[in-house]
Amino acid sequence: TNQHNSCPVYDLLNMSIKSFHIFFIIISAILSFGVGFWGINQSPMIGIVSFIGGIVLVYYGIQVYKKFRTI
């Protein structure tokens, strides 16, 4: 048997391009919202732009997910 079948790190490294794309969008949106919360106190413009970017990423992620379900 293959020893790598039960290793979660191995599974993460072997994810499909579709799964990686969705994963990357989620991480990017989380980071964008995080920078938005940080930016509100540092520079309101950075916060606003980051929140808008996060919203756009969430919308994009939903559209990509719908598309990936059909292909």
Description:
The chain is mainly α and 71 residues long. It contains three helices and no strands. The chain is flat, with a radius of gyration of 16 Å. The two termini are 31 Å apart.
The percent range for strand residues is under 5%
Shape: flat
Structural class: mainly alpha
Spans where pLDDT lies below 50 across 5 or more residues: none
Mean pLDDT: 88
Compressed to H and E, one letter per element, the order equals: HHH
The amount of helix comes to: over 70%
Note the total helix count.
Answer: 3
Number of strands: 0
Query: What value does the Rg take, in angstroms?
Result: 16 Å
In whole angstroms, the N-to-C terminal distance is: 31 Å
- Major sheet size, sense and barrel closure: none
List keywords for this structure.
mainly alpha; flat; 0% strand; 3 helices; 71 residues
Write the layout of secondary structure elements.
Elements: H1 8-13, H2 17-42, H3 44-70
Short description:
By secondary structure, the chain is mainly α. The chain is 83% helix and 0% strand. The radius of gyration is 16 Å and the shape is flat.
